[in-house]
């Protein structure tokens, strides 16, 4: 069956870094674009970054541009989100999403706090 398993979240101090991973199984991962979304407490879900099936096309939200990097390894069926220079405003549950299939992961909590 289809699985998307996020990992890498946690508690980090402002200015710190985290790398999120989303491991996929049960479908042809390399055929689909993948996105990272986040939902902060009391806010609407926000699209953070997207990467095409081959990795050749990438888009970022203005709020994280220059700080976050999305990448993928199709040999490992995994997409990553490297997050640097984190601020408390980045605190949220982060989800990976497979475009065109409407598959969601379970989410991983990122908390930025001193």
* Contiguous helical run count: 0
Mean pLDDT: 96
How many angstroms separate the termini? 40 Å
How much β-strand is present in the residues?
over 45%
What overall geometry do the principal axes of the alpha carbons give?
Answer: globular
Report on this structure.
- The protein is mostly beta strands and 114 residues long.
- The protein is 0% helix and 50% strand.
- The chain has no helices and 11 strands.
- Strands 2, 4, 5, 6, 9, 10 and 11 form a 7-stranded mixed β-sheet that branches.
- A hairpin with a 4-residue loop joins β9 and β10.
- The chain is globular.
- 30% of the residues are buried.
Give a nutshell description of this structure:
The chain has no helices and eleven strands.
Element layout with pairings:
Elements: E1 3-7, E2 10-12, E3 18-25, E4 34-39, E5 46-51, E6 58-60, E7 68-73, E8 78-83, E9 92-98, E10 103-104, E11 108-112
Parallel strand pairs: 2-11
Antiparallel strand pairs: 1-3, 3-8, 4-5, 4-9, 5-6, 7-8, 9-10, 9-11
């Amino acid at each position: 069956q289809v699985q998307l398993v996020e990992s890498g979240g946690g508690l980090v101090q402002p200015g710190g870094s985290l790398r999120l991973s989303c491991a996929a199984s049960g479908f042809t991962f390399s055929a689909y674009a993948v996105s990272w979304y986040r939902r902060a407490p009391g806010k609407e879900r926000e699209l953070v970054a997207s990467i095409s099936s081959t990795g050749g096309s990438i888009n970022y939200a203005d709020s994280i541009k220059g700080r976050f990097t999305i990448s993928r390894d199709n040999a490992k069926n995994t997409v990553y989100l490297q997050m640097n220079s984190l601020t408390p405003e980045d605190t949220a549950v982060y989800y990976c999403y497979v475009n065109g299939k409407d598959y969601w992961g379970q989410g991983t909590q990122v908390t930025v706090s001193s």
